C-alpha cells in the first residue's frame, strides 16, 4: 500500500517536495509502484537551472520511461548520486534514500497536501 | 512524472469488458497488478519485474498463459488441412512432437506465429496468440473447408500454465502421477504427451517462451486453480515464484524470440524476421507434386529476392533503453540518417545493459556494426549483435 507522509507536499505529476530552501524532492511511492523496477535515472547536474512544471529528468523502469517534472523553479545544488548508482532505492525508499534532487527555490508550482494527493491517486 | 498509469481506475474500467482467466482469483489472492492485455485482464507482475525475471533464470517461475488461443484440428485430413493453411509441413510432424510455425495471408504477410502440437494420428492442437486467436480460428475454419477436418475453438475451456526455469523439471515431476514421471522427465524440447499432474489430466509439453528449460501444461479451465496451487506449493522449496507478463516479455526478448505485433505483423513475411526456415516450400502432395498453401507464391518470390529489411539484435552501449517504435540511425555522427526502427527494447535484467530488436537495412545488419537509436531526441550508441542475447548455460 502506498504511503503519504503528511509533512511533505505533492504535485499532480506524482512528485513529493520536502520543506525548506534548498528543498529536496523525489517521486512518490504511488509513482514508483506504478513504474515497476526503476533501473536508470537521468538527472540534471549541480548548477543547472530547473523550472517548475518543466521536464528536468527521466526515470526508466523495466517497462517504461517517465519524464520527471520539476516541482520548483531554481538551481540544482545536490544530486542524489547514491540513487543514480542504485536506482532501486527509488522503489525501496522513495521518500528517504531514494530522493532525487535538492534545489534552491525561486518559485513553486501548484502543490497538494498529503490528503489532497491521496484523493487524487485514489482515482 | 508522466506515464504513471492510474492503476485503480484502469482496472475498474477494464474489468467490465476484459475476460478473466480461470486463474483470476489466484492472481488477486497473490496481490498481482492486473492489466488489460489482448482483451483479457492478466497479471503484469506479482512482486517485482526484475525479481520474477531473475527467478526464472536461476530457479523457476510459473506463468498463467490462459489467454492464449487453443484450436483443435481433427479428422482424416487434419494434417493436409494444416499443410494448406500454414507455412509448415504438419503431416511430417510425428505424434507427440510440436512445431513452431506461422499462418500467413495470401500476400505472405504473417497473420500469427503458432505452436502446433500433434496429439494424435488425426489430431492437432494449434496454439495462437491471444490477440489473434479469433482471426486464426476464422482463417483455419475457412482454409479447412475443403478438407475432411474439423476446427474447434477450445480456448474458453482450456487453461495454460507454464513452469519455466532450470528447476522446472524437478517441480513438475514432483506433482506428476508416479506412472507418468519418467515420460515427463524424458520429454525432449518441443515434444508433448498426455500426463496426470496434481491429479489433473494435462497435455504436458516441453515448450516455452523464456529461453529456459520448461514445460507448458494445457488443462481444463475448471481444474486450473488446483494445478496452479499444487505447482506453487511443490515449487516453493525450489524457489518457484509466480511471474507476470512483464517478466515474460523481458525473458523472451533476451532469448531473441519474436512477439507478434512487434517483430511480426501483416506487413512482414517470415523471411525479414530471420525465420524463413519455417516456410516449407518443398512440401509435396501424395503424388510428389508441389503442395499449394496459402501465401506460397509471394513467399517463394520473397525467398529468392533479398529482403529490404532484416531483423537484428542491438546492444545498447549507453544506459538508456531503445523502445518499440524508436528510429534506428546510421550512427551517433549520422543521426540524420534513419536506417530502421526498433520493434522491442528494454533494459536486460540478465545482461545489465539495454537490448533491442530492430529492423534495419541489410547492409547494416552484420554483427559488430555500430549504429545509434533516437532515444527521445538523443542519438544513443548501439552495436549489432547476433541473436539471441542470452543463452542458458547447458
TrEMBL record, chain A:
PROSITE patterns (UniProt xref): BIOTINYL_LIPOYL, LIPOYL
GO biological process, one term: protein lipoylation
Cofactor mode of binding and number, as noted: Binds 1 lipoyl cofactor covalently.
Domain Lipoyl-binding: 22-104
N6-lipoyllysine modification, residue list: 63
GO annotation, cellular component aspect: cytosol; glycine cleavage complex
Pfam annotation, one family: GCV_H
Requisite cofactors: (R)-lipoate
Alphabetical list of Gene3D superfamilies matching this protein: 2.40.50.100
Keywords, comma-separated and alphabetical: Lipoyl
The family this protein is said to belong to: Belongs to the GcvH family.
Function recorded in the entry: The glycine cleavage system catalyzes the degradation of glycine. The H protein shuttles the methylamine group of glycine from the P protein to the T protein.
Subunit structure, as described in the record: The glycine cleavage system is composed of four proteins: P, T, L and H.
Protein name: Glycine cleavage system H protein
Gene name in the database record: gcvH
Automatic annotation (TrEMBL), chain B:
Keyword terms: Aminotransferase, Transferase
Domain of life, per lineage: Bacteria
Enzyme class of the recorded protein, top EC level: transferase
Catalytic activity: N(6)-[(R)-S(8)-aminomethyldihydrolipoyl]-L-lysyl-[protein] + (6S)-5,6,7,8-tetrahydrofolate = N(6)-[(R)-dihydrolipoyl]-L-lysyl-[protein] + (6R)-5,10-methylene-5,6,7,8-tetrahydrofolate + NH4(+)
GO biological process, any: glycine decarboxylation via glycine cleavage system
UniProt keyword Kinase present: no
Ranges for domain Aminomethyltransferase C-terminal: 309-390
Subunit organization: The glycine cleavage system is composed of four proteins: P, T, L and H.
Record-stated family: Belongs to the GcvT family.
Designated name of the protein: Aminomethyltransferase
Lineage: Bacteria, Bacillati, Actinomycetota, Actinomycetes, Micrococcales
